[in-house]
Structures
1.
Amino acid sequence: MKKIITFWKKGDSYILLTAGGLLFSLAMVIFMISIILIKGFASFYANDVAEIKMKDNSIYLAEILETEEVVLQSESGKTYNQKQINIKIANRDIFDQDFKWINSNEISKIEYPQNVTVFERWEYGNLIAYVKNLNYNGKVYQTRDKDFWDIFSSAFEKSEENKSEKENLEEELNDVLSPISEIQREISLMEINFPWKTKEIEKLKQQEEILQAEINSQIEQLNQKIEQKVIENSEIYATVQAGDGTEITLPLEKVYRFYRPNDMNFISKSGLYLTRIWEFLVEEPRESNTEGGVFPAIFGTVMMVILMSIAVVPFGVLAALYLNEYAKQGFVTRLIRLAIANLAGVPSIVYGIFGLGFFIYFLGGTIDQLFFSSKLPEPTLGTGGILWASLTLSLLTLPVVVVATEEGILAVPKANKDGALALGATKWQMIRKIVLPNAMPGILTGVILAISRGAGEVAPLMITGVVKLAPTLPFDTTFPFFHLDRKFMHLGFHIYDVGFQSPNVEASLPMVYTTALLLIFIVITLNLSAIFLRNYLRKKFKTSAF
Amino acid sequence: MKELTKFQKRLKFENKVASGLITLGGYGVIVSVLLIFFFLVLETLPLFWKTSLEKDFEISGKTPISIGMDDYKELVYQVYENGIISYYNIKQKKNIKYDTLSLSAGEKIISSSSTLERDEIAFCTDSGRIINASILFTQEYRGNSRTIGSKLEKYGDFSGNESGKSLENLSFDKNENGNKFWVWTNDKKNVFIKIFDLEEDSNYTHNLTELTGGTKITASAINAETEVLFLSDENGEIFYFDISDYESPELKSHWKVSNNEITAISFLIGGNAMVLGSKKGEVEVWFQIRNENDDLVFTKTHVFENHNSEITKIVPSQRNRTFITIDKLGELHLNYSTTSATNVKFDNEKKGIKLVEFSPTADVIIVADDNSKIGFFNLQNEHPEVTVNSLFGKIWYEGYSKPEFVWQSTGGSDAFEPKMSLIPLIFGTIKGTFYAMIFSIPIAILGAIYVSQFAPKNLAAIIKPVIEIMAALPSVVIGFLAGLFFSPLFEKNLLLILLLSTAAPILFVVIISLWGLIPEDKRRKFSNTWELIFVFIAMVLVFIIFWGISEPLGTYFFDGNIKNWLYTNFNIGYDQRNSLVVGIALGFAVIPIIFTITEDALSNVPKSLTSASLALGASKWQTVQRVVLPAASGGIFAAIILGLGRAIGETMIVLMATGNTPILDLSLFNGFRAMSATIAVEIPEAPVGGSLYRVLFLTALLLLIFTFIVNSLATYIGDKLRKKYARY
């Protein structure tokens, strides 16, 4: 006891206490990141499907997710523990819900039958069922037939082919129809803005009729072709049986992918795993963002941070140069430093509301009135878009760039600079040839940190132009290629939107975790490279110091 | 002087351009900050502009009985006592049309009453007739211009007094089913009500005189939506009727509101507030409030500036809770019910105002005076519901039983009144920040002390990047984990979490004391790494112990359900997304900031100071405690307030991890609604230039000002410290 008292008196114990504080912080970081890693990576994995027979003879075909012990109260008021199992029964269109909790003591048997098939569908999530038979080419194939699954695969390919042909035809039809819809748009705009110009409206309506007559035969032809594809595809379907015995007719064109998890070995599962990751990165989202890929969000994020960098880097570097090379250290530099410190501390939402009020409503609104008045009241730049969001974020990341660049500039040895000046270089020459090249790692650090901040920031974006689902990317092949007025998708907002705004939160959780995983992967990679660069910078000038 | 070569000229030019650009860049930073600040101020200012009433133009004409205007402010109608209606076109500056109500010879209109929307008017004449009519405006497009036309619709009439004598105190209203209600008194002190039921196509007329006891009725007001009727008498008594049963109106209650005669009554939009004006010029608003027994009672809630004489007319606005009162001397007051404010007092150069009406958009007021002039006044009153008191004080809103701080910015109906008290939001922000700070400060500072003073060098090299990554973790990720992973986890293991945050630190301290049992000389031989491993084991041990005991403890003491136990014993409710979760999540975001700056401050304490202390025989900890910490205290303080600044402005975490309910409750187990989250959620839907829009800008401005103070203070302290250490 005495020993412990002296231990505290001397204060050595406090050292252990401080170590505790540190370890706790580290534990938290590791815990948080590992949750995202585990949950994120796990959600690409194709779980085995169990056939769960209950004591009351009902059957579930489901993925077993987790087991949990809950405390329940019996009718007599006594509490008891009960093991519950969370299963994913899928088949949302039949069972109304994807997930179910069942009591483990009501289960009589769990099996993993080979021939259970999981269908990922374009709509209504997954379908887990036994395949009974297949209608294809006017024939009915039974599961026990030889080569059944090969035929199934080719039927699936055929239906996919039909589907994509149909989509092409529809696109063609749209192209044919587009001049008409253009005129219709013009008419409705006229009717809203200039309802008294009846003559002009009448004229447009006549034009519309003429056009309609011209393309009528074309439309008919295309419609026939589309109809044919639809009929063809309606004849490719499988009959499947869900866990509870319901038989369902499943047209194969509704299927996105199918697999039989219990029949797959490690290699094929790994293959599926990698395909899913790839698909997550390059595909469009499906089912109101809860499934499919996040490509538009990745694209939007990347384009936004590039635009932001274009705006912030020159500004930040100039400011840093002014502070360290041009200005006399005094009142003005103190004021600028104060301004930078404050910019760094201003809450991001304040930038957001400033961006909304100043960039969108004030600047954008003014530009609309000057250059796009024909489109009003439909706003062009007077509404959220990638340009305004990037500009808002460039203000927000300005201090990051300035501070990092300053560090780079300060690390340039004075002797080098003086040497250049002594050789007769102008100040600008000296900056261009000596300061900027040597400060490059510092500037780069700033850019990387700014990008990392921009990629993770959400609050200011959600009021300046990010949307949950953008119909078009802000870059495409139609002139002028970059559409800076378009709204865009963003990884961070995707997390918020899918996790908190979607109607079926539980089913969308895997999507949230994978997106979070991707986002922290990007952010951590960027930050690590910034740290690496900074260390490189410090080392370089440590050795070259005079 | 030698002529400059082309190359030299170019160099000189480039140099000039560069220095110009660079200077611009430097000043650009200041400009940006000022731009943000002034833009926010600019957007906020109109909230506090004074209400103004400015004369636009004036036309001549004798005083009408009733007056009105169309939505586009082009056409004005005036109904005169002889039943003639004239239409004045404002652009053409002349009367363009006349209509007539077709009165019989010698009959005169003596008063009128209209619905709140002004879509139907009832007139009563001196021969005891009541005539209903609508004056409707139509729009026509001809060529490039719009013309406003008008249409008079007459709905017939009935006699209100068989003896043919004049009527008084007519009031009329119509509800959305088309049912109409009239109330009037006759020269024999009798009160009548007539109800027309559209669906049944039947009329009911009742004499209410017996119910009121035969006193002289001085004013009346009907609300057709809620089907209530108010009558006032000469003794300052109010009679409250329920008229929902058309066959027998029921006198619900009556009470004395004043010692003076009540001379005017009117309902405000929504029908829950009633304005009373007395003979002495008092103006009051009374609310219908449900008491403990669920009965409707009327309570005086707002009192306005007195008039100098009897109130003759109360004109409610059809847009909001603004109303105009006129007195006998012809003075006009423009009041806003909710804020108890009399915004304008106006006597029109003592010309004696007789009649006042709002334009449909409530931005023009038409004033008819004794001198046969009708003036049109532009009313600047954009944000009457926002005052300093409504933002920061308790306000008695309709439907509330007492004045309260309320944030409820949007509602379903037109009659909804935005309630924008910033107090619940400020409270929410402070609450979240408070819990985040008490969680993060000890951990971050302890950790920073360890890293800067005691940790092995190579460990510090690993830890700094880790903390930097912790700082870089996007708040949306932290927020989503808090909202979707930790909230359910905490709810399930509430007892464990509570134990870990209270008892666990104590047990941890006890366990690390055991390290002292190792003799000091042996301890010195161990490297720091062993210390760290011991602490790690201690932490894991503490966690395992509490994890193990929390369940049996819960079953034994709290019946296995601590949430229930808390609720039944202490009436503490538990929300899944609560301040405990936010505190930890927000704390997680704040820790790296405090940690980094504290660590910097501690490492920058000059080596000479610590060496001196150690040389004098102080132990490591004594040196830290007596030398390092005091020397770095300014830096640590700066670290804490910078962390505070971050916590206050953080948006996504509080948005995702709280329920966002604007309540004033300190409980750890409730959510809150923070300023930042409110801006993020509500600004996209706020109409540009509206009150909510500006109030949200004000909220942002408050955040900006607060962080400005915090950051300037931290910068100042940082500068001071740098100077102080420069001596060593």
Note: Chain A touches chain B through 109 residues (CB under 8 Å).
2.
Amino acid sequence: MLESLAEKIQGALRKLGSKGRLTEADVKAALREVRLALLEADVNFKVVKGFIERVREAAVGEEVLGSLTPAQQVIKVVRDELTRLLGGGASRLTFSPQPPTVFMLVGLQGAGKTTTAAKLANLLAKQGRRPLLVAADIYRPAAIKQLEVLGTKLGVPVFSQGESYPVVLARLATEKAKREGLDPVIIDTAGRLHIDDEMMAELERIKNQVPPQETLLVVDAMTGQDAVNAASAFHERLGLTGVVMTKLDGDARGGAALSVREVTGVPIKFVGTGEGMDGLEVFHPDRLAARILGMGDVLSLIEKAQSSLNEETARKLEQKLRREEFTLEDFRTQLQEVRKMGPLDQILGHLPGWGQMKKMPGMQVDEKELVKVDAIISSMTAEERLRPDIVDASRRRRIARGSGTTVQDVNRLLKQFNDTKKLLKQLGRAGKKGGKVSLPLGPFGI
Amino acid sequence: MAGFWARLSAGLAKTRNTITERLQEIVPLEGKVREETLEDLEAILIAADVGVGATEELLEGVRSERVGSVADLKEALARRLREILREGYAPLAESVEPPLVILVVGVNGAGKTTSIAKLAARYRKAGKRVVLAACDTFRAAAAEQLEVWARRSGAELVRHQEGSDPAAVAHDALQAALARRADVLIVDTAGRLQAKKNLMAELGKIYRVLNRVRPDLPQETLLVLDATTGQNALSQARLFKETVPLTGVILAKLDGTAKGGIAVAVQRELSLPVKLVGVGEGQDDLEDFEPDTFVSALLGEEG
């Protein structure tokens, strides 16, 4: 895992901090770190060059150099510039005034078009629309079948006609959608190389046949320097309206997004994470900027927490904490609330510095541990959950048997619970003294 | 090898042109190599996805040689690239005791199934009996995809239902390969991002199942890397290698404009040699990797 870019900049400037004001040379040294980090994040080298120029101009201004915290100011300049490059605010799908709206997905082989098509259908269906998926990849073996299986799982109709020519298929699909009131139509096309003239011409013909409202380029977040070549070739021939960046749930920095956005000027509309059908999110430039900087993504985490955590539960929990009545039952509720937010490593990945923390011993998160904890608590009687002190050796053996765990597991849980309780007590006291306990946020509060 | 040369140089034409053009642009033919020149060269290598670490090492080496002209610079660079790529290079194992078992792993969409199809076709053409194990029981219709390829090349397929334990499929397929006295068993696995702990553990299990039947199996565990991949390929290689003992890399999709420079970075940092390259969509478009040819094409030295 890469060292965080924000840390690198701070490191480069920290040495100079004690000397007082920064000079242009100091900024230059810091910007060399920025340059290397962006290259390691797979931002195209030409894009990096322009980027560094603009940051240098902004960073040698009076405001930054004269600031008391120049390192943070430089980071802020970098982050702002990254956000600007990525397109400012979030950009949404547009719909045609005359239904059905057609969305066409295009891209290189293996970018994730079929999965994205299904995820998009799922997202739109959840918003109350009635999408139609069109299996227009007649070249890759079993691609049609793949989309059909996904469609069945989601309860979304899939239009396919064996190996009919994709252009004909697209037209028939829109006609069907019009007849049956299905909207939007999502066309999954075959993966192709941007230099394959014949295959690119096929996309042009589909585009002319059923003018799509949106032509979305699906780009793998792990793509390297070549991302710009592919993206500009697709853009020149098809006039893209948006980009979907996939596989962002891995440890790729996703610098390709920056390059693609810069060379095409087309907004990134969605990011794909995970293989589950819910893994498609609206793209937020500021958050990816933070990710490229290695500053984590606290906003996404807060949003996830807000949509998953039951406010009532949270309030009750807080009261209990204050009254120091926290029991194992509450402990379990809390765990369940956290787990509702998604796979644990995904949640933690949003935290600043998690990349570093993950490497420390004892910090690896195991989803299975949580399942165990849940099972152990479920095997306790109501009284045991309220008063863990009464759990003696014999009860421990019974609980272990009942939950399919070992006595050691039960012991560990009870110890963890006691530690948590102690910690909460301390936090509670701190809270009463008026000192607000808050999450440690990014260097400038985000 | 003529086919390989033609296809690879066509695939790498873009790289070659870029590097040669850029070099000529920054260094007049008889001109001296200056510090700025090396800095620009750094950008060029990075643009080929060679990676910051490998690039700096290469430049350090070239600098220490105090080369004077562009021609010398290119020669020094080519020599160093060849050295990196040759280290530990070995062609695909020729099985001593059949079956030759090849486990194929990689992230989603890297090109595993297509590479396997090509590999199967190659062995079938050589008159070998080939069994394919459809261990991607996760992705919708993955087994069907492999089945189509198996039919085309005349390989035999062992598959279970979607959602079943991939290690069990691997086990059954190996038993089938042994019973049928197959020459080659190729194991297809589900695409997985290297940061996903559980999925990586599942992969470890597939490996162990094969290994338990006979300790020399699998003889090859190949990581499929998409040639368009950037620096994340290093993380892929590192984490997959921690899970299963990789023996080499298949560099897929080298027929685009991607430069495949990650091959250099991966070899340098993880001593993981590229064994095969995918250069097209046809069944025959899989070739043995040749470090010398690759470097020549990369730096634009004809033949």
Note: Chain B touches chain A through 47 residues (CB under 8 Å).
